[in-house]
């Protein structure tokens, strides 16, 4: 790998407040869930994100109704809605592992993570890295992502905070004006 670009990447899962509440080991039995249903169904994944902002689905449908005669709005709404809801099941063992290792034990942040029996430490990443974070990210709060650059071992590392939310950072209407020029500039200097 020559370069690494990360988008709103959480490493301190204690700061993923709402997800931490949802997966609190005192109330959430991940083993029972995975052993009972196997793969995590898309509906469960979508519901967990909708619980972060319970009214957002209703608000977006009201906005659609108010703009029903605006063909561009309807087209944009439908494209985004399809992207946001076209979710595949999540492999059960993967879900069990990330819940225990990341959400409960915070292994990535604590430098105790292993993958395939080998230590996986952020300090071992030596390639140039750019970390793009969103100013208004309700899924990955900045406090959950802010330590990534400090823990990376590369001498060439940069973090950029841009206006937008978790999804709009990359896929929103303004991504082409905010994020993409930064990516072009950053990669252009490192890809030859």
UniProtKB/TrEMBL annotation:
Coiled coil: none annotated. SUPFAM superfamilies: alpha/beta-Hydrolases. This is Poly-beta-hydroxybutyrate polymerase. It comes from Bradyrhizobium diazoefficiens.
């Amino acid at each position: 790998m020559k370069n690494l670009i990360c988008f709103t990447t959480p490493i301190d899962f204690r700061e993923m407040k709402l997800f931490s509440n949802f997966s609190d080991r005192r109330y959430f039995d991940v083993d029972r869930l995975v052993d009972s249903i196997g793969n995590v169904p898309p509906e469960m994944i979508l519901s967990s994100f909708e619980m972060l902002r319970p009214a957002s689905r209703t608000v977006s449908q009201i906005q659609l109704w108010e703009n029903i005669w605006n063909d561009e709005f309807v087209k944009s709404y439908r494209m985004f809605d399809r992207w946001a809801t076209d979710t595949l099941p999540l492999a059960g063992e993967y879900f069990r592992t990330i819940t225990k290792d990341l959400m409960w034990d915070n292994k990535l942040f604590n430098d105790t993570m292993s993958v395939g029996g080998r230590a996986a430490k952020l300090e071992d990443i030596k390639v140039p890295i750019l970390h793009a974070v969103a100013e208004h990210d309700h899924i990955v709060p900045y406090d959950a992502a802010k330590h990534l650059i400090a823990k990376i071992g590369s001498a060439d590392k940069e973090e950029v905070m841009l206006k937008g939310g978790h999804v709009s950072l990359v896929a929103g209407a303004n991504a082409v004006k905010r994020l993409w020029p930064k990516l072009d500039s950053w990669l252009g200097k490192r890809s030859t």
